[in-house]
Specification:
By secondary structure, this protein is an alpha/beta fold. The chain contains nine helices and five strands; from the N terminus they run H-H-H-H-E-H-E-H-E-H-E-H-E-H. It has two domains: about 80 residues, Methionine synthase domain (Methyltransferase, Methionine Synthase (B12-binding Domains), Chain A, domain 1), CATH 1.10.1240; about 120 residues, 3-Layer(aba) Sandwich (Rossmann fold).
Length: about 220
């Protein structure tokens, strides 16, 4: 990892929002891959998440780090969009959100950006999303795929509860559900009864392409 990469992670973890945003902007101007910036942000959030679960950080730190990442994402998104294919026909609709009880959004933001630039219509409904909002939005937006994001282990129960509610509402057979974030694995997949899990943004893109019958470009 480059010295600047390590410094960016440190500034985010130290809650130095102005310093982190300034450094990210400088790295972008110097030609650093936008996805590299987001990967560094993800690494920083991994550390923040562990500190939260260990009782070193609390909700205010999660909110502040989330604000830092939101500002950095605002710098990165235009660079990612520049890679997109213009007004190409959308392959399908994806609804994505971080489940109830979890405030992490950098992983979700990376997935949203990557799906967007790969010509999927994405509706991001934010963080700490109540089960009822997922159900309501699925009815209104009519997505082909629903992505449930969560970093903390407590998110796994929220993912299961959300999927159960979608099934109870009679909407489960109309969609594919993918989960991601933190230590999601086959055990969590079986517990939540989602259709698949992804370890990174490109996994999410691959899954959506497979489900929508889109060949790789």
């Amino acid at each position: 990892m480059s010295d600047k990469g390590e410094e960016l992670i440190e500034r985010i973890v130290d809650m130095d929002t102005p310093g982190a945003v300034d450094l990210a902007a400088k790295m972008l101007d110097e030609g650093t891959d936008p996805l590299r910036i987001l990967a560094l942000c993800r690494s920083a959030m991994d550390i923040v998440g562990r500190k939260f679960e260990d009782g070193e950080f609390f909700v205010p730190e999660l909110i502040l780090s989330g604000d830092t990442l939101e500002q950095i994402s605002a710098l990165v998104k235009p660079r990612l969009t520049e890679r997109g294919g213009g007004s190409a026909k959308k392959h399908g609709r994806v609804l994505i959100g971080t489940v109830s009880g979890d405030l992490h959004d950098i992983g979700k933001n990376i997935v949203t950006f990557m799906l967007d630039v790969n010509n999927f219509e994405v509706l991001d409904i934010g963080i700490d999303v109540p089960v009822s909002k997922f159900v309501e939005t699925i009815r209104e937006f009519k997505p082909d795929v629903v992505g449930l994001s969560g970093f903390l282990t407590l998110a796994y129960d929220s993912m299961k509860t959300t999927i159960d509610a979608v099934k109870e509402a009679g909407l489960r057979d109309q969609i594919k559900v993918m989960i991601g974030g933190g230590q999601v694995d086959e055990v969590v997949l079986k517990y939540t009864r989602a259709d698949a899990f992804g370890l990174n943004a490109m996994d999410a893109v691959r899954l959506c392409r497979e489900w929508m019958g889109v060949t790789a470009e």
